[in-house]
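Encoded backbone
================
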Amino acid sequence: MPVKKDPQPPRSRQIINLLFLISTGFLVVNLLFPSLFGPSVPREPYSMFIHRVQDQEVVRASVGQETIRYQLQGEDGEPGQVYETTPIFDLQLPRVLEANGVEFAAVPPPQNRWFTSLLSWVIPPLIFVAVWRFFIARSGGAQGALSIGKSRAKTYVEDESTKTTFEDVAGVEEAKAELVEIVDFLKTPKRFTQLGAKIPKGVLLVGPPGTGKTLLAKAVAGEAGVPFFSISGSEFVELFVGVGSSRVRDLFEQAKKQAPCIVFIDELDAIGKSRSSGGFYGGNDEREQTLNQLLTELDGFSAGDTTVIVLAATNRPETLDPALLRPGRFDRQVLVDRPDLKGREAILNIHAQDVKLSPEIDLKAIATRTPGFAGADLANLVNEAALLAARNNHNAVEQSDFSEAIERVVAGLEKKSRVLNDSEKKIVAYHEVGHAIVGAVMPGTDQVAKISIIPRGMAALGYTLQLPTEDRFLRNEAELKGQIATLLGGRSAEETVFGSITTGAANDLQRATDLAEQMVTTYGMSKVLGPLAYDRGNQNNFLDNGMMPNPRRIVSAETAKEIDREVKGIVEEGHQRALGILKANRDLMEKITEQLLDNEVIEGQNLKNWLSKVHLPEEDMLAA
C-alpha cells in the first residue's frame, strides 16, 4: 500500500532559503578567512623578519599594530617579494630599522573599530538564523518546527494493485476468522448497532515475533477498504514531557475525521507496560502520561457515529497494564501463533509464487522439516534457498537448495575455514555418532536425518540434525527422559571410546539439566516431590515492588535440596542409559564413525541403513 506523503514546501521558498544560506555562508567565510577572497601574502615569523633586517635584505616596511608588511630587495631593478609577520612588543624596532637603512612608516590604527565590534555582535545571530531556517526548510516550513506534538502515524490508502487482503495471509486461519467479523463491523456497522450491539473498540493481536500480526492488521484494512493509520508504540515517547500524550490526542483526532478507519499500534508494550511494574519509575513519568491519555481516548473516541477500531500488536501481553485489557478497551485478544504443518505449507506456497521452483520441489516435505518456524522464518527460508540456487548457478531452486537453507537457518553458516586437527576431528565424529545412535532408539525422539562434522555457526564443531515426522504438542515422561539420554549421547560416546570428556558437551549438559528441572518443578514428574509446581511460571511477570521474581517459589531448604537431588537423578539416569546403548553398539559406532571421518557427512538412505542396525541392551528391552 502506498504511503501518503506530506506536501513539500513551495519551490520559491526553497530557492529563497537556499540563497539566504549561500549569502550568509559567503559573509561568514569572508570575515573568518579574508585571504580566500584577496591577494595571498606569505607570512614569516617575527624572528625571520629581524634576521632579514639585520642582513639588510629589507627595503621598506609598513608597521601596524596587528601586521608588519615588508618588501625585500629585488634583482635587476624589479620590486622584491612582499611578506607579512605578526609584531611583538619591541621598543627597539624603529632603531633597528633606521640603523639598517629600511624605509618604514607606522600605519595609523583603523578608525572603524566600531564596525568590527558590530560584526562580532551581528555574525553569531546570523549564523543561528541560517541554521534555524535550514532545519525549518528540512521539516517542511514553520509548521514542521512546531509539529513535535503531532502524530507521526503513516496513513495507508487503498490501492487495488498493492493492497493486502486475507488471501496474502496463511497459517493463522483461526485469527483470520476472528478478524473477518471486524471487517463486517467496518463495512456494515448498522447491521450490528440496530440490534443494540456495541462495536468492539480494540483488538489485541498477541503472538511470538514474526507470526504476521502487522500483516494481519493490513489485511483487515485492505478487506474493509478503509484508511489505515500505522504507528509504533515507541514513536509516542520523546525527550520532552507531554509529547507522547499530545501525539495520542492528535492521532485519534485524525482518525475521527476519516472514520470509519483502523488505527494500528505496533509494539504496544513500549507505552502500555504495567504501571505497578519496573516499566515505570513512579511519579509523573512520560510513558505513564502517554498510557493514561491512550486509556482516555479508548473510552471516549467512539462517541457519536464514528467507527474507529484500534488494532494493537505485542509479543509480551503479560507486561501490559490491566487497565488496557479490561472490557471496553481492548475487548478482544486474538492469538497469532506459529503455524502447524498445514499452515507452513500454505505460507511456503504464498512466498514461493515469485520464485522459480524446480518441478521436483516438495513443499510439504519442506514444511515437515520446519517445525516451530514462524511466517517470517519461512519467508527467509525461501529467500535463502533462492540465493543459494543463484550462487550455485542453478536454473531453478532445487530441493537441495532448500535443504541447505534449512541447515543454515537452524545450525548456522558452514565454517569450512575452521580446520580441526585429526585428534579433534575424531572426537567430534564419535560425539555426533553417539547422539545419532542413542536418538535412533529413544521413544518419541525426532528422526535422525543427518550427521556432519563440518563446523557451523559460532561454536558448533559438528551437529546431528533431527527432524520431526509430525507436529507434537504433548510429551510424556518416557519421551522426555529419552530426549535427555539423546542429549547426553555425545558425552557418553567420548567416555566410552577415550575414557575422558571434553568441553564439547557444554551445551548438551545445559539443555539436559534444564529439561530435567522442568520435569521436576513444572510438570510434576517426580514421585518424591509429587504433582506440585515449584517454578514461578512466566519470568516476565514483575512483583508488586517492581522486582523480578526468583526462578523458583520460596521453598524450604529441604525441598530445594530434594529438587536438586531429583534433577541430578534424572540426568544421571539418562547418562547411564546412553552409556549402556553405546556399549551394546560399540562395533556399529566404530563403523559409522569411520565412514563419517572419510566423508564428513552421512545422510539419506545410507544413514537410515546404518541406524536400523542399532539395538537396545537387554536391560532396556526388559524395561520396555
User: Anything to note?
Assistant: The longest helix spans residues 557-584.
